[in-house]
Design brief:
The chain has helices at about 5-30, 40-60, 85-100, 105-115, 120-135, 135-150, 150-170, 180-190, 190-200, 205-220, 225-235, 245-275, 280-305. By secondary structure, the protein is an all-alpha fold. It has a domain at about 5-205. The longest helix has about 30 residues, at about 245-275.
């Protein structure tokens, strides 16, 4: 496979996904109080953009896109075609919780319960709610639905999960990278086309996060999945052929050491500059203190989120 084409495809798809997210996000900000029922147009536009970006990736790599599932239409929560009055009541209850900005934690709990035991209609309503609420629990629930639900619900869950994972790429404080979630999501994808779309998103993260996930997937008993993981290992290791875990871990160790050396050299360069320009020394010390505080805050926040 042409390495240059694959790299171009990855960059193109990530750019298109980010553009789709930013367009949907700006539309969402225009209305402070937004519910899933009011957001179907933006969701459909983003779904079309994500589908187009995945098709662009597969075309650049020489794959056929006909195997991908058709995109199911989003269902408006406010006017469900319920099969019974009881189901109608469940859907209306979820919509009411979503309409109340102060009850989104209740809405999340309700949506997770509906995703686990509801009908297809309830599960799709739950997917739409989780897409807007977001968070680690929402991602995990969507990933589970991809593996346990029918084709239509699975497709909706993938699109919602893709939205949340894309959101993390541009968020100021994204959810911590979860290797288990990425591994499960790729394994639960309905076909190779869906797996490819997730591999492309995964590749937007740094090698220290990406390579361990790909090494796990390379050992899958699913030959098609293992082959895809091997291809993306090559893409994410600057064209290095990685055929087993030992080679991958060796490359990653060398890469991390190189990054550490670069960081150390940059710090030494700053210190040398400060020494040759004494008037800049106080400002350099203050900048170093601020950076250290920001790093400590980020670490504390990440640890707190992991405990939650």
């Amino acid at each position: 496979m042409n390495k240059k084409n694959r790299l171009v495809a990855v960059l193109l798809t990530v750019a298109l996904l980010l553009l789709a997210f930013l367009l949907a996000h700006s539309s969402r900000q225009a209305k402070p109080v937004t519910t899933p029922a009011a957001s179907n147009a933006a969701a459909e536009a983003e779904s079309d953009a994500a589908t187009s970006s995945t098709a662009a990736t597969l075309a650049a790599e020489g794959h056929s896109t006909t195997a991908a599932k058709a995109t199911p239409a989003y269902i408006k929560l406010g006017a469900p075609l319920a099969n019974s009055p009881e189901e109608q009541a469940v859907l209306v209850e979820l919509q009411d919780l979503m309409d109340d900005a102060g009850r989104h934690s209740e809405a999340k709990a309700k949506a997770i319960a509906m995703a686990a035991s509801g009908s297809d209609l309830q599960q799709i309503a739950a997917v739409n709610a989780l897409r807007w609420i977001g968070g680690s629990d929402a991602k995990k629930t969507l990933t589970q639905l991809m593996g346990s639900a029918g084709e239509e619900v699975s497709g909706e869950a993938l699109r919602a999960l893709t939205h949340l994972l894309t959101e993390d790429l541009v968020a100021e404080r994204p959810d911590p990278f979860d290797p288990a979630l990425w591994k499960d999501a790729i394994q639960n994808a309905y076909n190779d086309a869906e797996r490819e779309s997730l591999f492309v998103l995964l590749s937007a993260h740094p090698p220290k996060d990406v390579v361990p996930v790909l090494l796990d997937l390379q050992e899958s008993k699913d030959n098609s999945l293992a082959e895809l993981a091997t291809e993306y290992l090559e893409t994410n290791t600057n064209g290095t052929e990685i055929l087993n875990r030992e080679q991958g871990e060796e490359w990653l160790a060398e890469h991390l050491q190189e990054q550490e050396n670069i960081k150390t050299e940059e710090e030494l360069e700053k210190e040398r500059d400060a020494a040759t320009n004494p008037q800049d020394l106080p400002r350099f010390a203050e900048l170093k203190r601020i950076l250290a505080e920001e790093a400590a805050k980020a670490e504390n926040t990440e640890n707190a989120e992991k405990k939650d």
